[in-house]
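User: Here's a chain of 265 residues. Predict its fold as tokens.
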Amino acid sequence: MPDSTLSAGAIEAVAQLAVSAAGKTVEIDGVAYATAPLHDPRQPAPAPDVLEMHSLTALVRYIAENRDGLSFERCAVHVESPTSVSLVGPLSDGHYRQRFAYARATARPAADGGFHFGAFLDLERFNIALQALFTGAGQRDDVIRFVGNIKSEQVRQQSDDGKTQSVEARTGIATVATVDVPNPVTLAPYRTFMEIPQVASPFVLRLREESSGIVAALFEADGGAWKEWTIGLIGKFLEDRLSQLRPAPCVFAAPHGDRTEDRAE
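Assistant: Prediction complete.
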């Protein structure tokens, strides 16, 4: 019976083959392949903790005082959304080409995230939300009066053409009349930083009957255009207050031509 035990010389030869094969690369059809897993010993630099704040005023003050000694000629203020603005640095010179965020302002436009669009509320909660979570701009007061005067226990769906509904509402001390639900309505919810005028936009007001009674909901009807207007207003606010700094960080927001306060509160 043959001896299957490897000799010391054979074991050493196998070990040498393993060593010589480790870390090798071969090229096939112009593509390089490795014969063993490769690990990059270079590590990305540790990212600094982002300084969190909740107002544009605080962000402007942080930049103006520059306690961290940043080089603002290479920094930028990025208006990411109507509720988020970040101060970011340049791409680093290392292998990973990192970009660090040094400070971020996040808006808290209203308690519990503001008004819940698309959700039906009973008329009392709906009325309270209109007064607490919207500015007085646009048709807010008209909608409040309309909702407060609804008397009928049933929304008259037979007159609903998909755009206009009819309900019974009080017109006097004891008089009840059929009136149309206004649509669309222009409202200005609190949904960005308080230093910025709240942009008014159209909403679809819908009513329906449920077991608990009449409920109402608002649906956004501008395709999100209010966000672009608001980003432009935030950019203008920051540019106006940072322009006196030398050097001043660049502000990235909507183009100048898109900025206007015509639709703001």
